[in-house]
């Protein structure tokens, strides 16, 4: 026979169902409100960066793909610096907190409950992401808009960091048997956990290849100049 304590252990929407989250308070914001906020603000960053990057400067206009890459870094700056920055600062109070960004994390945790239990790997990974790749992403936007010579170095560093974090994120959960989400759920597993994170594997991979090519071409040009002098 279950006692009163056992009967109240599962008063939350997270997996595994036997998680103990004694401070949990249910969101009073709907999923649609939270997702509209996230994608609207991300869209504003993308649109503003797209418009700015299309202006002709002293070095000419950026190409379409380069502008899209700059927009990616602007959105990353927002998500890493603000959304993940919030988690890195307030992870220990999020389950019971009703601030909007805490509710956003409680909603996302339906796809990965490691965020609502302040899992050690998640806290460390998100803290590094917030305080390194957030500022670096905005720096990359500036570097590309002003044609700085180190812009592809930044692109390579940020993309490698993002890729490494995303691979560890998926791999650690794989080793846990995908225990922190409702496996196969169309929204919580496939959209929250898989889709919203696999972007940080696919896009950084493409940007790493791009930076490799750009930096290799620059090095080849320097080597050719040196050989001509000799």
Automatic annotation (TrEMBL):
Q: How does it sit in the membrane?
A: Multi-pass membrane protein
**What PANTHER family does this protein's entry cite?**
3-BETA-HYDROXYSTEROID-DELTA(8),DELTA(7)-ISOMERASE, STEROL ISOMERASE
Q: Which Pfam families match?
A: EBP
Q: Using the record for this protein, list the coiled-coil segments as residue ranges, or answer none.
A: none
* InterPro entries, per database record: EBP, EXPERA
Q: Where is the EXPERA domain?
A: 65-208
Q: Which residues cross the membrane?
A: 34-53, 65-83, 128-145, 152-172, 187-209
Give the superkingdom in one word.
Eukaryota
Output the Gene Ontology cellular-component terms.
endoplasmic reticulum; membrane
Where it sits in the cell: the answer is:
Membrane
Q: What is this protein called?
A: 3-beta-hydroxysteroid-Delta(8), Delta(7)-isomerase
List GO molecular-function terms, semicolon-separated.
C-8 sterol isomerase activity; cholestenol delta-isomerase activity; steroid Delta-isomerase activity
| Family classification | Belongs to the EBP family.
Q: Where is the signal peptide?
A: none
Q: Name one GO biological process term.
A: cholesterol biosynthetic process
Q: Which organism is it from?
A: Cottoperca gobio (Frogmouth)
For this UniProt record, give its keywords in alphabetical order, as a comma-separated list.
Isomerase, Lipid biosynthesis, Lipid metabolism, Membrane, Steroid biosynthesis, Steroid metabolism, Sterol biosynthesis, Sterol metabolism, Transmembrane, Transmembrane helix
């Amino acid at each position: 026979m279950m006692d009163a304590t056992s009967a109240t252990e599962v008063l939350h929407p997270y997996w595994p169902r036997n998680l103990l989250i004694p401070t949990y308070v249910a969101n009073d914001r709907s999923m649609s409100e939270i997702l509209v906020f996230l994608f609207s603000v991300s869209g504003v960053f993308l649109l503003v960066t797209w418009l700015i990057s299309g202006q002709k400067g002293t070095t000419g206009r950026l190409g379409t793909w380069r502008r899209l890459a700059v927009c990616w870094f602007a959105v990353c700056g927002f998500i890493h610096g603000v959304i993940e920055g919030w988690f890195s600062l307030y992870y220990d109070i999020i389950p019971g907190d009703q601030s909007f960004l805490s509710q956003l994390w409680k909603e996302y945790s339906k796809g990965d409950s490691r965020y609502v239990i302040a899992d050690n790997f998640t806290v460390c990974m998100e803290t590094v992401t917030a305080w390194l790749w957030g500022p670096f992403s905005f720096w990359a936007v500036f570097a590309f808009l002003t044609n700085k010579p180190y812009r592809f170095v930044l692109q390579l560093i940020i993309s490698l960091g993002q890729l490494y974090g995303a691979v560890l994120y998926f791999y650690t959960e794989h080793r846990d048997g995908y225990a922190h989400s409702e496996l196969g759920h169309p929204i919580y597993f496939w959209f929250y956990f898989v889709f919203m994170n696999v972007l940080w594997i696919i896009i950084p991979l493409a940007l790493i290849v791009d930076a490799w090519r750009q930096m290799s071409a620059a090095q080849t040009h320097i080597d050719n100049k040196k050989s001509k002098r000799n």
